[in-house]
Amino acid sequence: MHRVITLSPSIMCADLVNLERSIAQLAENGLDILHIDVIDGSFSPSMPLGIETIKRMREVTDMKFDVHIMSVNNEYFIAEMLNIGVQSITFHAETTLHIDRLIRLIKNEGVKAAVALNPATPLTQLEYFLDELDMVCLMLINPGFATNKNEKQVPYASRKVSDLRQLIDNRNLITSIQVDGRVSLDTISGLVKAGADNLVLGSTSLFVKGKSLMENKQSVFNAIKLGME
């Protein structure tokens, strides 16, 4: 298994009051991607970061911005993120009438395009446009409820990852599989083994309280190594 595993720290799990410092610390620890959730409060009852905040973040770092839009109005937020200058945009299949149109809108700007699926959304949704995607983001908890510490990963998480990996491999695609939601030090090895290659890291992995970023990062690497064996 020679997959490269991408680490995508979720910035909403960092110290949002000291955002610039949080970003600098991630960069100092060798991380080059920021996973940024853009939530409209309607798709999901959470609004961690506004557009103006993301604009300011772009001014203070060269890190790649991996934006995950959770909205009932994808086109508006896609246009805003393209204006800011991000490297990857993910939007949800569940709220999009014209999926392939939005994929083209993103890719025409030289930005990577990805589609996210909620936990219960079947992979059959991807049938006709999977070949056009750079990445698929599988939500393993219901989006936007990261602060609900009691919410566990759905029991079929690894099976869904494995089914998607098979689908991608059968078509000889290089589409990446991102997993998002309780991607913890306990679940990483199983998700990597199942075929995930992009990990959204939050409060149960890279931002575990009481330990340094460097310590947590090493724990993440250890879990990945276990999944690659």
Report Rg. Answer: 16 Å
Low-confidence stretches: none
**Strand segment count:** 8
How far apart lie the N and C ends?
8 Å
Q: Helix count, per DSSP? A: 7
Trace the largest sheet across and list its strands.
1-8-7-6-5-4-3-2
Biggest sheet: strands, sense, closure? 8 strands, parallel
The mean pLDDT is: 94
Shape: globular
Strand content: 15-25%
Task: Return the string of H and E elements.
Answer: EHEHEHEHEEHEHEH
Classification by helices and strands: alpha/beta
Helix share bin: 25-40%
How is this structure best described in words?
By secondary structure, the chain is an alpha/beta fold. Helices cover 34% and strands 19% of the residues. It contains seven helices and eight strands. It has helices at 19-28, 51-60, 74-84, 99-107, 157-170, 188-194, 213-228; strands spanning 6-9, 33-39, 64-70, 88-92, 112-117, 135-139, 176-180, 198-201. α5 links the parallel β6 and β7. α5 runs parallel beside α6 and α6 crosses α7. The mean pLDDT is 94.
Summarize the structure.
The chain contains seven helices and eight strands; from the N terminus they run E-H-E-H-E-H-E-H-E-E-H-E-H-E-H. It is α/β, with parallel strands linked by helices and 229 residues long.
Fold topology:
Layout: E1 6-9, H1 19-28, E2 33-39, H2 51-60, E3 64-70, H3 74-84, E4 88-92, H4 99-107, E5 112-117, E6 135-139, H5 157-170, E7 176-180, H6 188-194, E8 198-201, H7 213-228
Helix pairs in contact: 5-6, 6-7
